[in-house]
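Page 42, continued from yesterday. The earlier attempt failed because a stray header line got pasted into the input along with the sequence. Redoing it now with the clean sequence only.
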Amino acid sequence: MGIETKHLSTVIEQHTQDMTGKVVAITGTTSGTGYVCARELAKLGAEVLLLNRESPRSARAAEQLRAEVPGGRFVPITCDLQDFASVRRAAQEISAKYEVVDVLCNNAGVMALPDEATKDGYDVQMQTNCLSHFLLTKELFGALAKSADGRVVNHTSMARLGPPLAPEYFGKNGGNLGGDGTEQENASFSGPRWMRYHQTKLANCAFTYGLKQRLDAKGVTNVKVLLAHPGLAATSLQTTTAQTGGMDMGSGLMNNAQSAEDGALGIIRGCADPAARSGDFYGPKQWVGFPGKLEPEPALLDPENVRVNWEGCEAAVGPFNV
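This time it went through. Structure tokens are written below.
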């Protein structure tokens, strides 16, 4: 698309720290925000674990990262977020290799996909975007708790804004959550596909603040949980949903997008900003712009949303005891 990157150098210069010696795990690094985050944190000295489904695409991305950051340390880890067993294996592999994990960036996401179930029976969007990230965080929490500055960075989007969380989206109801919507609904970012996506993106927020509450209650001060959103960024997320009829790429909306690099800056700040405090939320004020510190909307902290998310996630993947 050739969109100019406007804010990357400022964020790297003013809002990151030396990451030498730190271990950073990032989901979804084959393209877009995850790729940029992996590249920039490696430049800052981190050892970056690339958590992706095994594919020629993920292998190519790892090689490209090594070419872009000579001397950068990248470690591919097979992790399919649409398969709980794969997520557990990835966590076991990481725990066997690393006693300490400093940052877990739950970046990966899918958007407005058809009403389909994963092999585990859950909605493909909810399992990918939310349930598997809850599971991964739960499984790696012991290693994060051994870091002097442990961080969990969750990625939401503007789609977080909307109705409250509903328990049925967290259950084994994949393929039975409203269908795929009409062409008209999908062209206007409404209907059941987009409601399922909204539920996952609000769930990412409720998980962030639910985990923060539990850390605060236990007096855990060496693990921060942070939130970011990319605004409207030109990444492969839109292309994937357009292929299945979820989005009309000719709608003109993407003409207003910022670059994937600028879209990645919220998670980069979450991972590496020395001034970050638990609960901080980074991103553009609206669709595009500098990734400032944002005030979370009341729905993100709403006790009922926090409860529905935590109970739904635990029912799917087991208890998460901080």
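Notes: Strands lie at 23-27, 47-52, 73-78, 103-106, 150-155, 223-228, 281-283, 292-294.
Reminder to self: strip header lines before submitting.
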